[in-house]
């Protein structure tokens, strides 16, 4: 993971020249050719595509830095929209000309591309070796291709306005569902809008309410903790009572009037703007959005785990692999040069994105491998609390197959907007599951 503008940013930026001063030697695996580890001048041309919606200045900064270090390399930079990588990448796949380095999501769609041979294997690169084992697992395809290095490790959290909590008489953060409902009502009674929801962003909706519905009703309940493996590999029925209940709590919040005014047309960034401006008291977002919510001059925001659990039951943590970077195959592959840029953004200067986005570093030993990292203390505390939870569940985008997830987004949005009922989940997902099965049989 991943991440999200409502509008598509697919545009070519600059053609910049960039080469080789001194960089750290790169150790590479079976797919990516090794560099010589010297300060010898590098020259040539690279095509790269990077997501610029969560931390747009990171692309500019990397380009400027790489330009200073490698002035003889011509770098053609395209921007991607992390909520819709496919818009950028599908035409390039059709043309057989993937960028040398590209931003990707940790999804079934990209793992399938890796299995089909569109990406180089990046095992052995310093970023691959340094990232957490869980990220290595999530960025390994079914045939064993190690296809990306993550830009962070994430979870879903509740961001709340500390001052508005105090004004509403809320003395502690909610720790279960009933306390959360009470909290929403107190905020509403005090004249505050309780919860910011991006009704116009199906991808964002596909991360939040449904994440916790699945986490509690399917995983923590013991109904089917391994549902995603079963659904990936064979027949699966999403019309059972357990699945029909996963959005019931979201409907309770909507019908109680706890969503902000105009939520139906709010995209993700309007949602976060309203929270940082103090117009709405809370929002549930991925930890990768912390840099967009805790802003200088903004509202006094706290962060805590999401209380979707019933009284007496444990909360569930959501595990998210941050979006990553892969090396694409194309007719002009200069793997030595591509590996230089890949290592530059995934390891040597990965802190540029990390500090701007506020994400949690993806490394086993962050202190050693990213000494320049700056992690907000509020985020670190909330992340530690989430990571300590004994039950974990995957974010839907990384748990469902690509075909089914497209319908997940449509289903959640339809329910939130009042155009479908939670009980209709099978009508949306089961046909997509059958379509997925048909791809397995080809």
Topology:
Blueprint: E1 11-17, E2 44-51, H1 56-69, E3 73-80, H2 85-95, E4 101-104, H3 108-115, H4 126-130, H5 133-138, E5 149-150, E6 153-154, E7 156-161, H6 162-167, H7 177-189, E8 193-195, H8 202-205, H9 209-220, H10 227-233, H11 241-244, H12 248-255, H13 268-276, E9 280-286, H14 290-293, E10 301-304, E11 317-321, E12 324-326, H15 335-348, H16 351-357, H17 366-369, H18 377-387, E13 392-394, H19 396-399, H20 402-416, H21 425-440
Parallel strand pairs: 2-3, 2-4, 8-9, 11-13
Antiparallel strand pairs: 1-3, 4-12, 5-12, 6-11, 7-9, 7-10
Structural class label = alpha/beta
- How many domains make up the 3D coordinates? 2
CATH class of the largest domain: Alpha Beta
Give the overall shape, derived from the CA principal axes: globular
Distance between the amino and carboxyl termini: 29 Å
Largest sheet: 6 strands, mixed
| Radius of gyration, whole Å | 22 Å
Strand content: 5-15%
Pfam families: SBP_bac_1 (PF01547)
Protein name: Multiple sugar-binding protein
Organism: bioreactor metagenome
Quick overview of this protein structure:
The chain has 442 residues and is of the alpha/beta class.
What are the main properties of this structure?
442 residues; alpha/beta; D-Maltodextrin-Binding Protein, domain 2; 2 domains; 21 helices; globular; Bact_solute-bd_prot1; SBP; Multiple sugar-binding protein
Describe the structure.
The chain has 442 residues and is α/β, with parallel strands linked by helices. The protein folds into two domains: 11-152 and 322-369, 3-Layer(aba) Sandwich (D-Maltodextrin-Binding Protein, domain 2); 156-320 and 385-440, D-Maltodextrin-Binding Protein, domain 2 (3-Layer(aba) Sandwich), CATH 3.40.190. It contains 21 helices and 13 strands. It has helices spanning 56-69, 85-95, 108-115, 126-130, 133-138, 162-167, 177-189, 202-205, 209-220, 227-233, 241-244, 248-255, 268-276, 290-293, 335-348, 351-357, 366-369, 377-387, 396-399, 402-416, 425-440; strands at residues 11-17, 44-51, 73-80, 101-104, 149-150, 153-154, 156-161, 193-195, 280-286, 301-304, 317-321, 324-326, 392-394. The strands form three sheets. A six-stranded mixed beta sheet has the order 1-3-2-4-12-5. Strand 2 (44-51), helix 1 (56-69) and strand 3 form a beta-alpha-beta unit. Helix 20 runs antiparallel to helix 21 (425-440). It is globular and about 65 Å long. The two termini are 29 Å apart.
């Amino acid at each position: 993971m991943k991440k999200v503008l409502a509008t598509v940013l697919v545009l070519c930026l600059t053609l910049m020249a960039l080469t080789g001063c001194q960089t750290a030697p790169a150790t590479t695996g079976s797919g990516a050719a090794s560099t010589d580890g010297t300060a010898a001048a590098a020259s040539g041309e690279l095509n790269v595509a990077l997501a610029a919606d969560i931390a747009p200045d990171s692309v500019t900064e990397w380009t400027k830095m790489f330009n200073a270090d490698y002035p003889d390399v011509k770098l053609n930079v395209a921007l991607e929209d992390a909520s819709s990588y496919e818009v950028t990448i599908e035409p390039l796949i059709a043309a057989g000309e993937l960028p040398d380095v590209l931003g990707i999501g940790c999804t079934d769609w990209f793992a399938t591309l890796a299995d089909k041979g569109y990406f180089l294997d990046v095992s052995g690169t310093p970023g691959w070796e340094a990232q957490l084992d869980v990220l290595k697992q999530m960025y390994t395809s079914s045939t064993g291709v190690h296809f990306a290095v993550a830009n962070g490790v994430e979870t879903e959290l509740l961001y709340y306005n500390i001052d508005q909590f105090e004004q509403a008489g809320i003395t502690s953060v909610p720790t279960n569902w009933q306390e959360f409902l009470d909290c929403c009502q107190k905020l509403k009674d005090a004249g505050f809008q309780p919860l910011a929801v991006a009704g116009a962003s199906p991808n964002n909706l596909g991360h939040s309410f449904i994440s916790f519905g699945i986490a509690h009703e399917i995983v923590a309940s013991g109904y089917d903790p391994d549902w995603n493996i079963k659904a990936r590999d064979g027949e699966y029925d999403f019309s059972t009572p357990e699945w029909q209940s996963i959005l019931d709590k979201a409907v309770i919040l909507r019908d109680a009037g706890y969503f902000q005014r105009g939520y139906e047309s709010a995209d993700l960034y309007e949602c976060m703007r309203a929270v940082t401006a103090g117009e709405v008291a809370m929002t549930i977002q991925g930890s990768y959005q912390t840099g967009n919510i805790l802003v200088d001059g903004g509202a006094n925001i706290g962060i805590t785990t999401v209380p979707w659990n019933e009284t007496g039951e444990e909360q569930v943590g959501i595990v998210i692999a941050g979006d990553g970077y892969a090396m694409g195959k194309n007719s002009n592959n200069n793997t030595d040069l591509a590996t230089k840029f890949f290592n530059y953004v995934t390891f040597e200067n990965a802190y540029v994105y990390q500090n701007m986005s506020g994400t949690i570093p993806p490394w086993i030993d962050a202190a050693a491998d990213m000494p320049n990292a700056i992690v907000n203390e509020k985020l670190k505390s909330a992340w530690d609390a989430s990571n300590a939870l004994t039950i974990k569940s995957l974010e839907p985008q990384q748990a469902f197959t690509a075909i089914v997830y497209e319908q997940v987004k449509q289903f959640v949005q339809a329910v939130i907007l009042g155009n479908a009922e939670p009980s209709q989940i099978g009508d949306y997902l089961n046909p997509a599951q059958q379509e997925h099965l048909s791809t397995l049989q080809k």
